Amino acid sequence: MAEELIAELDRGQNFADLAKRESVDTSKQKGGDLGWITPEFAASRAGSKFVDAFTSLRAGEYSRKPVNTPYGWCVVGLEGTRNLP
């Protein structure tokens, strides 16, 4: 399923719309938006593979391969970054 969603993103589908339609976790209502998270927080919740995926992305990009997390297979998208004080 995640591969199919990546293919839809490749064809120009909106990440948030796909997440609202397909996600099975609580981020579904927010279009997959997890809010601002640090790599440390992400590692404690979703594991190192998730961190590797989102730290390798630039704003506006999404993972090209599904990421296996404790929550299941995910497509990781990055909207933006900011510096911590």
Description:
A two-stranded antiparallel sheet has the order 1-2. With 85 residues, it is mostly helical. The chain has a single domain, classed as Chitinase A, domain 3, CATH 3.10.50.40. It has helices spanning 2-10, 15-22, 39-46, 48-55; strands spanning 67-69, 72-74. The radius of gyration is 12 Å and the shape is globular.
TL;DR of this structure?
The chain is mainly alpha-helical and 85 residues long. It has one domain (2-74): Chitinase A, domain 3 (Roll).
Mean of residue pLDDT values: 93
Record the strand order, biggest sheet: 1-2
CATH class: Alpha Beta
Which CATH architecture is right? Roll
Strand and helix order: HHHHEE
**How far do the termini sit from each other?**
39 Å
| Largest pleated sheet | 2 strands, antiparallel
Percent of residues in β-strands: 5-15%
How much is the radius of gyration in Å? Answer: 12 Å
Count of distinct structural domains: 1
Compile the SSE list and pairings:
Layout: H1 2-10, H2 15-22, H3 39-46, H4 48-55, E1 67-69, E2 72-74
Antiparallel strand pairs: 1-2
Helix pairs in contact: 3-4
Descriptive keywords:
mainly alpha; Chitinase A, domain 3; two-stranded antiparallel ribbon; 7% strand; 85 residues
